[in-house]
Structure formats: C-alpha cells, structure tokens
Amino acid sequence: MIRWKGLIAFAVIVVLILLFNLLFLDRIIKGIVENQASLAVGARVDIGDLKSSIFGLGVEIRDLQVTNPEQPMKNAVQIGSMVFDLAASPLLKKKVVIERMSVKDLAFGAPRKKSGALPRRIQKKLEVREKAVDVDAGRRFEDCVLPDFSKLTDLKKRSAEELLTGINLQSSAFIVDYQKKVGTVKATWEKRLAALPTQETIEKDVKALQSLKGQRPKDVAQLPAYLEKVNTLQQKMKETTKVLTDTQQEFQREMGGLKSSLKEVEKLKDQDLKTVMGKMGIRVPSSMDLLCVLLGKDISQKVNQSIAWYRKLSTFMPPGKPKGEEDKPTERPRLKGVDVQFPVTHGYPDFLIELAEFSVLPGEKKWQQEIFAFNRLAGQLRGLTTQPSLYNKPTTFKLEGALAGNIAKELTISGEIDHRTESVSDRVGLNIKELNIERLGIQKKESTLQLASGILNIIGYLGVKEEALNGQISINVLNPKIVAGTTASILADLFKNMGSFDVTMTIGGTINQPSLTLSSNAEKTLASGLENIIRTQLKGIQDDLKNMIGSRVDKDFKVANDETMDLEKLIRGGLSSRLSSVSLIPPAAPSKEKKGIFQLFK
Amino acid sequence: MIQQVISLIRLMHSETDPRQISLGFSLGMIPGLTPLMSLHNILVLLVLLFIRANISAAILSWAVFSLLAFALDPLFHRFGLFLLTDVSLLQGFWTSLYNAPFIPYTKFNNSVLMGSLIFSLLAFYPVYWGGRMMVIKYRETFMERLNRLKIVHVFRASNLYKWYSRYSKLKGG
C-alpha cells in the first residue's frame, strides 16, 4: 500500500516550497509588511530594501517611508535603517517578539517623489473601518481665515444707502413684530380690564359699607346680623382689592418684559451692521483670529494629527479588559471567517518590541532642509505591544536630539502609554528649544499672514485619561517677523514692531470630540492695534452704515415706543383709578370675637 | 482537468482497486473543503503521495469540493464559530492549543477552517465508503451497459478517441 516514489515526490515538493520561500522570503516579507502597514496607517508604506536572516533571526529594513495620510506627497516618518533581533522561542508560538531594535536616521515631513495615496478601492475599505474615528477637533482653528481687506478701497467709493440696498434689516423686522405684539397685548388687557369690577361698582360698594357703619344697631340682639352684613361686604371689597393688585402686578411684569425686549433693537442694529459688513466681505477680525491664522491653525493641525495617530496606535494596543470579559471575534469578509482569540495563559504577547534604540550620529546623513530630520538623536522605546494587559508593563519612550540644519537646537519627546487596564493613562511630553522658523523655511502659498522668521521655544504635553483629553502647548515666539500677504497688507504696520509674545493652546474634551482653546499675551496689544487700523481704514463707512440703519429703524422704534407708552397709560390708568376707589374703604368692622364686642361698647 | 476526468473514467474501467479510487477522492475532499493554504493540507498531500491513493480522483475531488465549499462557507463559519466559542468543554483545549508551539500556525482558531476541517473529517469515512461502493456498483452494473451503448461505440471509433489513445500510449499511460 506504501508508495515510496510518492514520498520522494512529497519531499521534492516540500523542498521546492522551502527553496522558493528562502529565495523570495525577503520579497514576501517586504510585501506583507508594506501591505499590512499601509492598511494600518491609511497611506502607502514603502520599504527600500529588506534583508532577513533565518539563522540569525534578524531583519534589516532600509529606507522606510510612511506616507502622511493627509498629505500624500509627504512622508509622515522616514527612517534610514531599522535592524530587528527576533526572539526564537516565541516564534514557534506565532508570536513576534523583537528583543532589540535599532533605528537610525529619523526624519519627519520629507517630500515624496511619488504620491503615497492608497488606491480608491482600499481607501473605501478603510473609510468604512475608520468611520467612527473621524477626528473633528479644532475645525474652527483649522478653518480660520482673515477677510480680504483690499475690498475696503472699493467700498469707500460707495454710499451707505447703496451698500444697504436689498438688505433686510433684522432690527426693522423686529419692530414690525413688536408692534403686532403690542396690539395683541393691548387687546388682551382691554378685555381683562372690562372683566374687572368697574370704578362705579367699587364706589357703590364703598358707599354701602360706609353707610352700613353709620347704622350700627344699639340693640345687642341685632348686632350679629349687622356684623355678618358688614363682614360680607368687607370680604367682597378685600377680594376686589386683591384681584386689582394682582392684575396690576401682572401687567407691570408684562410691560417690563415688553419694554426690555424693545431694548433688543439696539443689539439687533449692531448685529445688522455686522451682517452688512460681513456680506460685503469686511468682517472685522478679532485679535484671536489673527493669532489663529498666524499660529493657531498650524498648532491645531499638529494636535489633530497627533490625536489621529494616537487613535491609530490605540487600535493596535487595546486597553486590558476586566477579568472574564473576552475580546469579541473580529468579523472578516466571506471565505475568510473570523479568528477567535483565546487567552494567552503564559509567555509573550502576539507582538512585542522589548527595546528599540534610536540613534542618529551628527553628520551621518545629509537631509535636505525644510524637513524635521534629526542630525543628533539618542533614545529608547520600551515595551510596545499589541497586548499590554498581558505584557503588564507600560510602553515608555524618551528621545533626545537636535534637528538638522540648525532648525532646532534641542528636541525632546518622552512619554508613557499605559494600556494595561481599562482605565487608560497616557501622557506624551514635547520640548523644542530654539526652533528656527526661517531655517525651517515653510512657505505657505497665498498666506494672508505668515510668521516669516522667529525663534520658537515650544513646551507641551498631551494626556489621555480613559477617554478624556488634557494638554497644553505653550509657544514662546522670540524676535518674530510677520509678513502680511497682499489681501492683508493693511495689517503690516500692526506687526512691524511686534516684540516677543507667547501663545498657549489648551487641549480638552475627549478623544472623539477634542476641544481646543487659544490664548496669548499679545491679545490686548493686537486688539487695540487692529481696532486703530480698522477705524482708520473704514474711515466712517461703519459710522455711515450705522447712521443709515438708525435712520431706517429709529422712526419705527419711536412709534413702537409710543404705542407701548399708550398701552401702559391706558391699562395702568384703568387699574389705578379702581385701586384708588378701593382705598376709600373704611377701617375693618369689629369682629365677632369677645374682644371685638367689648370694643363695640367702649 | 479534462485529462484528470478522462483518467478517472479509464480508472473506473481498469482493474484499479476501488479503495484506492475512493481514498483518493476522500483525501482530495479535505483541501477542497478547507482553505487551501493551510498547514494540514501538507499532511494530506503527504498521505496522498505516500499511500497508494489515486491522485486523479483526488484532484477531481478537490475541484468538485472547492466549488461546493464556496456555497457551504457560511455554514462552515457558523459551525466553526460554534465549536470555538460556544462549546464550553472545549475552551480549555483550544486555549492550550493556542498557547502550544507550532499549533497556532495551523490557523485552527479560524472559524471557516475549523468548521470545514471538522466537517471534512466527519465526512471522510462516509465519502470513502460511498465512493468505494459506487465504483464497485459501477463496474458491476453500469460499465457493461455503458459499453453496450451505441454512442460509446461511436465515440471509441472517433478520431478524437484514437488521437487521445495514441497520445496516452506515447505518454506511457
């Protein structure tokens, strides 16, 4: 029954498969790493060369380029060479444990020769997968723009009336509504006034009470009946007084509301002015708008990118779950099934970098300017794993170095990522000393405002506690030279003699909804300077528009005000006359109580 | 593939042991139903080449069951997932396999692989037995009747058959 030839054939097939793998192993690994990393990053990951050593259990990667998913023509990270030493025994259990990794030549933001965007088909797949992780942080900062100030010259030639043509003023519409409201209130109160006891009725009751008091019986036997009569009338008068007082108070409240709503007109007039100015493209920016365009936009972009990268990293190192709670199998497409993860009872996690050493020796590699490349770097990363709860140690890292081309004298990134338990506690710190903007040479196209040169000292941190974000980035700008573009040339003087200033961005909110706030000590100086410039430039346009809006609205406003006064006079008059009649009621008659009766005989 | 079918027909008409044919067919079913690029299929290949099982039957079976697997895949997934996650008695066993050396490379924790492998192992003997019975039955009853059919005579007299016979002899078949 045994076929020895078949056994030889099997051996030949196996040897051929092994030989094929050995010959093309490097290409196979390279392909797998590139594909998987590209899917993980969401943009192309290219490896220049990959060499593996089966017997030495090592891998060497040269010229690794990770594309920036938001800027496909730039690399987020570029690494000259990486050498891995793999542990043998975990490999038998399908676990990749990198005992030691050395990373040389690190650069950020290097330009790419070819676009690193992924094909549309894969992008769609990723969009579906990453739908829930769409970071929407700081959109306000990222969208901040300055108005086109060059429009001011054209506007000066046009009259205020011409500028207001075809614009519906909110203040005018409000007054029309207000007048209608006064009419309704008037009708309602007239009805209510009619339903109240008339002055004649009240006076009649008062007279009846007064005459009753004069007819006090001398016979004690008639006294209870008399008192009953007096008290009934008095009770009626009391109720009338209460109704009138309550009504008067209610009317005063309503009138107060009406009058205060009329004050809104002034605010609406200002609003109209802003709307008209805005429609004409002469929105007056705040000092924070200037700072936002100058620095805030860039900082918020960097913060958003960091949060997005953090989220990507977090998906690969999920926080540990409480005991007994198992990971749900991840659904995979048809014919692929799902891989059920069983608890790892002992040994290593599925993927672990025990130690990664980063180094760049001065002058080792020449990088072109305009990128964040290190010309000196030393540091370590420890304990990066896909199963932090199993590894039971936090990931720590600290890198210290300097940027090439004297872009920054010192740069330190350090942090700790602790995903061992469900309550995640991460913190990353950044410290850049003397970042030379001019040497960095970022030239923004069509930028309205640009920090052309200056020395920045940046210190900041970003912390994540469970889902909550907290962080702060403080930038000290020394010797700034700010260039205003053609559309903002009127601001040139504002920044001419600007000294050093600080900008702080505070990060809060959650990972899903980060909130960013910007503050600066230059805020007041910029605000007053800006006000002066705008005032000079607008040269009365704003005042003319204000007066024109006023002339359109004030006439109606006066009418509305008069109507309000009339209404108040009418209703208050009606109520006051009734209340004054009520006040003529004689003092209360003695009660049936013993004391009262004795008083009666006094 | 056509050649394999013709070889199988010739086998059916030859003196080859029906057990060899049905064993080949049953062994071919395993890579047909389970994902091809799996470690256990190397073992199947070894068995197939080492013992005297019919390779043509195995290849034909692999092709037939591959098509069938496409339709049965959702069932395999459910069955595998049930075995891997819902049978509490097996959890300890799977966990120890998951933590054992080499075993994780078999991808046993994949629902489709587990479902299809267990299904094909369960179906192995019935397919083997059924196949053997069918070959015997065919040779006993249908073969004679088939040989008497006019169309078979016409086919054997055709140039195509003659050409194929010559080609097979040249190949040493």
Give the N-to-C terminal Cα separation of chain A.
Answer: 142 Å
Stretches of chain A where pLDDT is under 50 for at least 5 consecutive residues are: 132-138, 591-602
What is the percentage of strand-forming residues of chain A? 25-35%
Structural class of chain B: mainly alpha
Can you write the helix and strand succession of chain A as a string? HEEEHEHHHHHHHHHEEHEEEHEEHEEHHH
> Based on CA inertia axes, which overall geometry of chain A fits?
elongated
Structure description:
The complex is a heterodimer of chains A (602) and B (173). Chain A has 602 residues and is of the alpha+beta class. Among the domains of chain A are: 152 residues, no CATH class; 151 residues, no CATH class. Chain A has 17 helices and 13 strands. In chain A, strands 1, 2, 3, 4, 5, 6, 7, 8, 9, 10, 11, 12 and 13 form a 13-stranded mixed beta sheet that branches. In chain A, β2 and β3 form a beta hairpin. In chain B, α2 packs across α4. Chain B has one domain. Chain B has 8 helices and no strands. The model of chain B has no long low-confidence stretch (mean pLDDT 86). Chain B is elongated, with a radius of gyration of 20 Å. With 173 residues, chain B is an all-alpha fold. The chains are: A alpha+beta (602), B mainly alpha (173).
